[in-house]
Amino acid sequence: MNRVNKYLLHNFLGTFASLFSTLFLIMSIVFFIQIARVTSYIEITFGELIKLYLFMLPKVLLFVVPIAFFVSLAMTLFRLSKENESIVIFTLGSSPNSIAKFFLSFAALLSGALMLLALVMIPIAAELNSNFVDYKKTVAKLNLKPNQFGQKFSEWMVYIGTQDSDENGTIYKDIVMYNPKVQDSERIIIADNAKFSNTQSGVELSLNNGKIYDMRDSLYNQSNFKYMKIRTTQSESTSKVGNIKEYWLEAKTNNKRKKDLCTYVLVALFPLATTLFAISFGIVTYRYEKGAVYLGSFGVLFGYFALIMLLASRPITAIPVVFLSFMLSGILLYQTKIARRY
Fold first, then answer.
1. Is 284 a residue whose pLDDT tops 90?
2. Quick check: pTM over 0.85?
3. Between the CA of residue 312 and those of 58, 179, 252, 285, what are the distances in Å?
4. Which of 206, 233, 260 is the last residue of a domain?
5. How many CB atoms lie within 10 A of CB 35?
6. Confidence band for 137, pLDDT divided at 50, 70 and 90
7. Mean pLDDT of 146-158
8. 260 and 131 share a domain?
């Protein structure tokens, strides 16, 4: 690596670190909000919350790193052009082609690492996350609170009037439960009191002195009970962690897995596909092209991720079409705007 490349890399890494930390914080908040949904039906400690976040970390990095790379490269070269340092770099014998080759090599290594993250680490983390949540459902206390709507127990929406505690645990009073999908009907259960307990295979709800209302079409049925139990059966076995091939083979039949495969692969390839765009936007004659870097960078980001969302259900077509179209467009823009001029 020559001095010019070292100098460019040093400036790039400084900008990248600053932008990465900002994007990482924003994405972390978004994923923490998603994780917080788990606490609506089970109680977890702060340490377990951090563990769930670590399972989400590969996905956070997958989306943050490519965007930070592209924007940082464009802004670094733009700042050097603004301060006329790019002229000095070209005077010292460096050329846009040598800069492009250097950062394309860097982008190829980064995309390779991101591909490993997308296709290997994310499936493993997803299985660990699923196993952890399933385990907590069988051993953790349900996080139900009085006078709050939107709480869940299995497929039931639950409302609790009050609660008391004794040596045997928590007793919930004036409980109302609603399930819209019970044998093609809607069901409401009202009980004077109830108690939750953990069993070896799941969570058991014991209800006392209540009524059951079944509603199907225009028919309404009511039945009374003195004592009733509702059990949720959790999976007795955990998913196999590390079976990456089977995880992605589900994309043949599972639409969500198919969209994930397309999205993760294209996001991983984003640095390599857009490096020449970043160089073309960054190396400018500052007097005449002050705002092109901002508009151009936003346009590339919007166009790339919009195509991912539109074509995610067809990965066999979307992956080569989106990647090659942006790669070839970047080459054309670079040849027209940079190579011929400098």
1. no
2. no
3. 20, 33, 13, 38
4. 233
5. 18
6. low
7. 75
8. yes
